[in-house]
Amino acid sequence: MHARPIAYAARVTSHLSVAVVGAHGRMGRAVCDAVDGAPDLELVARLDASDDVAGLAGGPAQVAVDFTVPSVTEANVHALLDAGLHVVVGTTGWTEESLGRVRDHLAEVSSGTGGGPGVLIAPNFALSAVLAMTFAQRAARFFESAEVIELHHPNKVDAPSGTAMTTARHIAAARAEAGLGPMPDATETQVDGARGAVVDGVHVHAVRLRGLVAHEEILLGNPGEQLTIRTDSFDRSSFMPGVLLAVREVVRRPGLTFGLDQVLDLG
Ligand SMILES: NC(=O)C1=CN([C@@H]2O[C@H](COP(=O)(O)OP(=O)(O)OC[C@H]3O[C@@H](n4cnc5c(N)ncnc54)[C@H](O)[C@@H]3O)[C@@H](O)[C@H]2O)C=CC1
Ligand SMILES: O=C(O)C1=N[C@H](C(=O)O)C[C@H](O)C1
């Protein structure tokens, strides 16, 4: 495919050089501003839907940050790896299969001596959300019941959220490891969908409401008691420290890293 020319910034310094893919979107715009404001990072390219990411090959960008749409993010990651970049991904829609294809691609292009490019994919870069997922996973084995409610702005294109999918999968894995069986539920639904989606046996409910940004509640229940874990992103600034941390980390983590918890010292 022929690459369209990309508008690079004229000045290239010894800083870590970053290209933002999906730069015109809600997250892309915030990431451009955050990278621009970071003393050790240099924003060298802003790409959106009409640009070809392959055009980054041979340019100054060392790391690409992808906040696009679930239908294109995997293809972007493969093209960015082919272009020789490390990649940070916040876009949702990843499955075990698509993650596996990225692992295979990374194995093909790795140096064989432990070096090579890094790909860091995180369903949520906000610290409160990362902690909420971690706490839910730790608590899951102690409760008979667990359900996830995610609440987002109505412009969000996917449901359930990537964060809720990951939370549910982690809860299910913790329950399976602890030998817990199915959750108690005698309900016979009158209307399809009344009990939400089911992800690995965990019910997940999606709310879309004007005024919201990104929120999640994990409800854990036992006879006579409930634990509620809640995370609220009131503003997209909540994601930026995590995105910048990922940009700095991905260059020294060859291979695939899934989840920001993997680069935080959560004990
Ligand atoms: N991991 C995290 O912490 C967060 C993840 N997200 C996820 O990030 C993604 C983007 O979210 P928003 O910025 O709110 O969406 P948005 O719709 O505002 O932005 C998406 C942008 O991607 C562009 N785009 C579409 N196809 C493209 C292509 N082939 N190449 C380059 N650009 C392309 C669109 O033109 C648009 O500018 C969603 O999957 C969302 O769930 C959102 C917030 C935080
Ligand atoms: O689309 C969003 O806004 C968000 N998407 C991510 C998700 O689906 O989990 C992260 C956060 O919830 C915001």
How are the elements arranged and paired?
Blueprint: E1 16-21, H1 26-36, E2 41-47, E3 63-66, H2 70-82, E4 86-89, H3 96-109, E5 118-121, H4 127-139, E6 145-152, H5 162-177, E7 197-199, E8 202-208, E9 214-222, E10 225-233, H6 240-250, E11 255-258
Parallel strand pairs: 1-2, 1-3, 3-4, 4-5, 5-11, 6-8
Antiparallel strand pairs: 6-9, 7-8, 9-10
The structure holds 1,4-dihydronicotinamide adenine dinucleotide and the ligand O=C(O)C1=N[C@H](C(=O)O)C[C@H](O)C1.
The site of the ligand O=C(O)C1=N[C@H](C(=O)O)C[C@H](O)C1 has 9 residues, from helix 5.
Q: Can you summarize this structure?
A:
The protein has 267 residues and is of the alpha/beta class. It has two domains: 16-124 and 237-263, NAD(P)-binding Rossmann-like Domain (Rossmann fold, 3-Layer(aba) Sandwich), CATH 3.40.50.720; 127-234, Dihydrodipicolinate Reductase, domain 2, CATH 3.30.360.
Q: Return Rg in Å.
A: 20 Å
Low-confidence stretches: 1-13
Hetero groups in this structure are: 1,4-dihydronicotinamide adenine dinucleotide, ligand LZUJQKHR
The 3D shape can be described as globular
Main location: cytoplasm
Subcellular location: Cytoplasm
GO molecular function, one term: 4-hydroxy-tetrahydrodipicolinate reductase
InterPro entries: DapB_C (IPR022663), DapB_N (IPR000846), DapB_N_CS (IPR022664), DHDPR_bac (IPR023940), NAD(P)-bd_dom_sf (IPR036291)
